[in-house]
Structures are given as C-alpha cells and as structure tokens.
Design brief:
By secondary structure, the protein is α+β, with helices and mostly antiparallel strands. It contains twelve helices and nine strands. GO terms for molecular function: RNA binding; zinc ion binding.
C-alpha cells in the first residue's frame, strides 16, 4: 500500500490535471465563441474568401510549374535517349572498325610471316649456295696454291666483287683502294677476289700518325721534345725489316709501300705486291687470323692499277699544302730504297725493264719457317705478347737511356770542342794541324741523314748482288 505522502502527491497531481482540463475547456469555448463572432462579420468572411482564392491560385501555379518541369524532363530524357542511341551506334561502329583492323592486321601478320618464311628459305638457299660456291672457290684456291703445274689462276678466281653495281665507281676507292665512308659509301667499290697486291689496313701503327688534339694549356708546347721525325723514321725502319722478313717467306716481294697519312681511313695502310698471284694468295691465306703487335691483321686483295693516280705528287717533293692530312697517299721511304719499283701499271703486265729491277734474292720457304725463331710481334693470338711485355718495357727504357746518353755526350763533346778552340785560338801554327784534324773528324762524324741515305741507298741489283 502506498504511503500517505505518496497518496497526497497523487491526489495533488490529479487535481492539477482537472484544473488544466477545465482551463482548456474554457479557453476552447472562448475561442469558439470568438470565432463564431468573427464569422458573423462580413470583412472576415471576405478575407477568408480571398485566402481561399489565393490558395487555389497557388495550387494552380504549382500544378502548372510541375507540368512544365515534367515536360522539360521528358524533353531532356528524349534528348538523352537519342544521344545514348547515337553513342551506342558510334561504339558499335568503332567496335566493328577495331574488329576489321584486327582482322586486317592478323592477315598482314600472316602474310608477313609467310613472306619472312619464304625469305628465310631463300636466304638459307642462298647461304647454302654461297657456302657451296665458297667451298668450291677454296678448293680451287687450294688446288691452284698447291699444284705448281697450274701456271695461271682459274678465271672464276679473277672475278671482281662490287658493292653497288648499278652506281658509278667511287673515284677515291678506284685510285687509292680507300674511302673515308667505307661500307656506307653510296658509290660502287670494286674489290678483286684474287690479285698480286695485298692491302693490309692499319698495319703500321705509330703515335705520330695519330690525329692529336692539343690541349689549350699545352698548345704552345714544342712537340719535337717528345717525338721527332727521326723517331718515326727509326720505328718505321724497324717495322719495315720486321714485316719484310715475315712477308718475304710467302714469295718474292716487288713493292712494299706504307702510307703515312693521318686520316683515319688511310693511316698505316701497307701495300705489298708479289711477283705472282700464287705468292699473294699464299700470304693472304697464312695471314688470316694472325696478330702483329697484339693487333689482328686485316688483309685483302687490292686492284690498284697505278701508283701515279694514288700517290700525291706533291708529297714526293714535300710541297703538299695539306700535309699528311691529304686524301691521296703519302708514302714512307723504304730503307735503301728497297721494294720500290716504278710507279706505273703495278698490276698490269710487267715489262722486261721492270722485271730486271725486281729483287732476285732467295726468299725462304714457308715450309722451312721455324716457330722458334719467330719475332715477338708476330703471333696467332694477341696473348703471346703479354709474356714479353716486361722485356719490351726494359728494352724501350734501355733504348731511351741510350739516346739520352748519346745526346748528352754529343752536347758535352761540342761544348768541349768550342772551349778548346777558344783556349787555343791564340796559339801558333803548331796547333793548326791538330785543329784541322779535329775539324775534319767532326765533319766526318756529323753527316746529315740525306748524305747517309744517299751513301746507303743501293739499287735492287746491287742489293741482290751483295746478298
């Protein structure tokens, strides 16, 4: 049972509720009476009618706006539907175009693969034909090389290979067998398959033949303090003796010409002419794959017709304005003028006069060559030179020290001779004879290279006679 306080609280709550309900009923009654009184007034009735008309007008306006919005939406929907249909049609057309292109590409790919397959078959047939032709040529060359009864080479070995038969011949290649554009030249380069002249490209290598770009700091330095023309001459003489000794084992050499141009496509080339094609072919086959001074040899046959068209005429008198950068051949002078026949028709029929000038010295046979006596520069691979690199370095250092000692000794002797002349210049006639003898001895020891070259130069007949 609830307590007294709770009961009193509940009773007060109910009383408050009844009072609120009573006040609400009285208020509603008053409002109803007031409303009835306003309804009885004509102004209020007129206002109510205006409000109803305004609400109806607003309803009609809202209905009209709704209809206009719906019509606008329908128009936009129709436009969107048309655009969608156009886009779909465009997509279908693009898809059809893509499918058509894919079909065409697949067809072209199939045709290209078929064409490549036919080309591979044709190339394989050509390669097989070329290999068979090469084997036949090699057999023919071997037969011509080893059969002394065959005097003249077969006609199919005397063919000339052309790079661009439809173009006109390259002027520089026809004259010098060298072209600055090489295989990229658009004119025709004609190379013989067999000949009496061998061209060994970049055979002679020397630092003075390299194109030097001087640094601006050392642009005014004197180059002769490092290397001189005498050093180049000495190195070429050593190279000449070394090369002639090896190349002479394959046959009798008629011409040995080394190019001293500094251009990249001419630098260090060596032309070697033999008396016949058999000797040239023997040298060509034996030099393939060999190395000289750690550098592989690049040997080919040359169809050089005349030296006059290849050699720069002004270089013979040292008046060429381009120097060693000339496009025509500038040649080294061989020691004692050896292997240097006249400059005309080197690959044509030789006359009796030129045959008489050909050296007749006995040339060692290749079969008699001994590997034990081979020079250190010649090898079948570049690794052989590595074993002797230390000895070569010591030899070069000894040669350099010897040259320095000779230079210092000559300078001291010159200074002592000048000092002695000054000291004894006031002496009597007893010293005149001694001074004349010293002067005569000094002149005999200081001959110029030109006098030495003239005194040491001999004709090929004299050289053969001495040998």
């Amino acid at each position: 049972m609830p307590g007294r306080k709770a009961r009193r609280k509940l009773i007060k709550k109910q009383q408050r509720k009844r009072r609120r309900q009573k006040h609400a009923k009285e208020r509603d009654k008053l409002e109803t009476e007031a409303e009835n009184q306003r309804l009885m007034q004509p102004e209020y009735q007129k206002w109510l009618q205006e409000q109803e008309e305004m609400q109806e007008f607003q309803r009609l306006a809202d209905e009209r706006e709704r209809q206009l919005a719906e019509e606008s939406w329908l128009r936009r929907e129709a436009t969107a539907q048309r655009q969608f249909q156009m886009d779909e049609a465009k997509k279908r057309q693009e898809q059809e175009e893509v499918e058509r292109l894919q079909l065409e590409q697949a067809k072209e790919r199939a045709e290209r693969e078929e064409k490549q397959r036919r080309q591979r078959e044709e190339e394989a047939q050509k390669a097989a034909k070329a290999a068979a032709e090469f084997d036949a040529i090699m057999e023919s060359m071997d037969e011509y090389l080893n059969n002394p009864r065959i005097e003249k080479p077969p006609s199919h070995l005397l063919r000339v290979m052309e790079t661009h038969p439809e173009e006109r011949p390259c002027e520089f290649f026809s004259r010098t067998n060298c072209c600055r554009y090489g295989h990229a030249c658009t004119f025709n380069h004609r190379r013989p398959m067999l000949g009496r002249i061998l061209l060994i490209r970049h055979f002679f290598n020397h630092s003075m033949l390299q194109k030097r770009w001087a640094h601006k700091e050392y642009d005014s330095a004197e180059e002769h303090l490092e290397l001189t023309e005498q050093d180049l001459r000495h190195d070429y003489d050593e190279f000449f003796n070394d090369a002639v000794e090896e190349l002479g084992k394959f046959g009798t050499i008629v011409n040995f010409r080394t190019v001293r141009n500094t251009l990249e496509h001419l630098r260090g080339h060596v032309f070697v002419e033999y008396t016949n094609e058999r000797s040239a072919l023997r040298a060509f086959t034996n030099l393939q794959g060999r190395y000289y001074a750690s550098k592989r040899l690049n040997v080919e046959f040359s169809n050089l017709r005349t030296w006059r068209g290849a050699v720069c005429g002004l270089s013979l008198t040292r008046k060429c304005p381009k120097g060693n950068g000339c496009g025509y051949l500038h040649l080294f002078g061989n020691p004692n003028n050896l292997y240097n026949t006249e400059l005309e028709y080197t690959s044509g029929p030789r006359s009796e006069r030129r045959s008489s000038q050909t050296p007749t010295a006995k040339t060692p046979s290749w079969d008699e060559h001994s590997e034990h006596g081979r020079n250190w520069r010649w090898s079948a691979s570049p690794e052989v030179e590595l074993e002797n690199s230390k000895d070569l370095g010591n030899r070069g250092q000894d040669l350099k020290n010897t040259r320095q000692r000779d230079h210092h000794s000559r300078s001291r002797s010159d200074r002592s001779s000048v000092r002695s002349k000054r000291e004894h210049s006031s002496s009597g006639s007893s010293h005149d004879e001694r001074r004349s003898k010293r002067h005569h001895q000094h002149r005999s020891n200081s001959t110029t290279p030109d006098h030495q070259h003239r005194s040491n130069s001999t004709t090929p007949q004299q050289h053969n006679h001495r040998q």
